[in-house]
Design a protein that fits this description.
about 400 residues, two-stranded antiparallel sheet, alpha/beta
Length: about 400
Amino acid sequence: MSSIKLFEPFDLRGLRLKNRIVVSPMGTYCSEEGNLIPFHFTHYGKFAMGGAALVMLEQTFVTKAGRVTNGDPGLWSEAQMETMAALVGHMKSFGARTGIQISSGGRKAGQQRAHHGNGALTDRDFAAGDEPLYPMGPSAIPLSDGWQTPRAMSVGEIEGMRNAFVAAVRRAVLAGFDVVEIHMAHGYLLQSFLSPLANQRGDAYGGTLENRMRFPLEVVRGARKVMPDAMPLMVRISATDWIEGGWTMEDSIVLSAALKAEGVDLIDCSSGGNMRTGATNSNLARGPGYQVPFAARIRREVGMPTAAVGMIRTPDYAERILQEGDADLIFVGRQMLFNPFWAHHAAQHFGLDAGFSDWPEQYGWWLEKWARSLSANGESPLGPENFTGFEERLGLG
């Protein structure tokens, strides 16, 4: 076993991951009627080739009406399973484990695709072919000025949505995914029930912390029942709303303990996204590792595995997080878009794969010859343009 924790295997329930690197779920907003297209096979295939242990499919929706954008993928239909299963097989052929993030948009439904503006849908979007999407949530409180007011869900609608989540999880299992993650963060439906900023109900699903957790816990309980015993279940949370009067880290400790009791295996620790002044943490000065303390605290106080996410750009910093016991897995997002082979490069950086044996065989033979040629000229495959000096420039050295 390597002395570098980033490349030690990690067991999660009945699944062994070959290292601690996960490609974070990131929306691409280009599905057609909820169905995957050829783009997704290239997009996710390159991540699977890139050496990460687990590749997470982007936020996937349990109902057509509950999508955030018209370009979001879905698992609300049996017909969507065929291309999902094909993509799973494609990624696994490169040695990656596969996961999927299951979600419903809640009061964020009805947005533009991110690369089309990331705001509320407009007449211009409808003229271009987008359908209206109608948000709903715990209470009739819009996300922000200019956004649609969501319909406050009835108890019957809550039950129906819980069943839709469970049905989508069952389809994910049948499609062959190794891991399911329930999206309980960023102001989407389940997190909106948790946060008092969005949930001002007066019934059994609102008011006290126990009541606000009721619906999300019902979803998790139902999901666990349709998953194999050996299959890991993860939950992404917003550890804090970053807004006074909103969801807090102390609330997240209580929630994480309850999720652990329901059979959740790992908490993926993000934050924010439930703002009334925008769709993201636009008022928050972010920096490398700004969310790591959330993963560290839940790991220590609740006694369960956690994942760290958010501007973790370099192998050395990822390794430090693991060595200090702040998390068990490292989720890497936009840095993977910039460099899909980040995990392979990290192994090179730590001197663990000098012969390129972990790369796709079709690449490794060429790269090993290339590295020998560079070495003969006194050069290295990992020059300053890659990782060297990044820590200092980020203030993490």
